[in-house]
Amino acid sequence: MYEYCQRPRRTIREVLEEFRSVKIPREYVFDLFPPLRPRQFSIANSVKTHPRKIHLCIAIVQYRTMLKIPRRGVCTSWLAGLKPGDQLQIGVQKGFITLPPDLTTPVICVGPGTGVAPMRAIIQERIHDGTYENTLYFGCRSALKDHHYGKEWEQYASEGKLTYRAAFSRDGPEGVQRTYVQQLIREDAARICELVDKRGAWVYISGSSNKMPAAVRAAIQNALVTEGGQTEEEAKEYIVKIEKEGRLIEECWS
Ligand SMILES: Cc1cc2nc3c(=O)[nH]c(=O)nc-3n(C[C@H](O)[C@H](O)[C@H](O)COP(=O)(O)OP(=O)(O)OC[C@H]3O[C@@H](n4cnc5c(N)ncnc54)[C@H](O)[C@@H]3O)c2cc1C
Ligand SMILES: NC(=O)c1ccc[n+]([C@@H]2O[C@H](COP(=O)([O-])OP(=O)(O)OC[C@H]3O[C@@H](n4cnc5c(N)ncnc54)[C@H](OP(=O)(O)O)[C@@H]3O)[C@@H](O)[C@H]2O)c1
User: Fold this and answer.
1) What does the pLDDT look like over 158-203, one tens digit per residue?
2) Closest ligand 2 atom to 207 CA
3) Sign (positive/negative) of CA torsion 139, 141, 143, 144?
4) Whose C-alpha in 46, 160, 212, 244 is 20 to 30 A from the C-alpha of 84?
């Protein structure tokens, strides 16, 4: 089942093409072909900054499996074909992200790739509310490619409204380890420890990578050990505690 279906991501149509003897009785068709499920995308703006608007930052899903047939995401391929003025039906769901009620509380946003979407909503909302203690760790392949909202971040940074740190993973020389957001967090250990431990900063992590959230947690944990004098065990428990308190919030997908 795994080798034939899941791993190569064979579609129902491809299976039926291979087993032509299969005749599906009409009354079972809807048992076999499930209805399309809705796809979720994070809102990438604050309605205070852009009233009555919803911005999205979407990666168009395209990949190949061992079958070598190009696979395309159902919803994102369709979205990519839309023209200005086209209408679509959407629903809006409440997300997990809340903001610190006290405006003096700093926030640390970690959103590589399309993970930057909810971070933009948070940062715009905070800046609109007049609070500038915002830090963003963003990561993409190159400063010139997928540098989502780069000009906006640089503008906020130049106005003193944001501390902007970007990891361009593929801009370094070949063969050298790629730079990721967690590496910048390790470089900034003293500041991270000060913000999280002393100032009670809220931390947000979002993105599409499976391994990124754990690596970011480990980098924050490392800052608490090297700069805050905590033991590994204490720092680990501290991360669990702030997550329980709702001060570390993750919105990740794969
Ligand atoms: C809360 C939440 C917020 C999200 N926010 C955003 C956002 O802001 N921006 C954004 O771009 N996405 C976001 N996503 C992810 C998005 O919903 C999915 O990528 C969605 O599946 C895309 O729909 P699709 O129909 O185009 O792709 P689908 O047809 O659903 O195909 C996606 C599926 O293809 C498979 N797949 C994809 N790449 C590969 C690969 N390289 N190898 C093997 N299999 C693969 C995976 O099983 C994946 O689930 C979010 C998801 C969640 C749950
Ligand atoms: N074909 C393209 O040109 C292109 C461009 C962008 C995205 N995409 C696809 O779009 C999808 C989602 O893209 P996305 O923009 O959300 O993310 P993404 O571009 O895949 O990743 C964003 C950044 O995170 C880095 N990253 C990878 N693994 C990480 C880890 N373990 N910890 C921390 N950072 C890590 C990436 O580096 P590295 O990728 O260098 O390792 C990249 O710099 C992916 O399937 C991606 O393959 C395609």
Assistant:
1) 999 999 999 999 998 888 889 999 999 999 999 999 999 999 999 9
2) 16
3) negative
4) 46
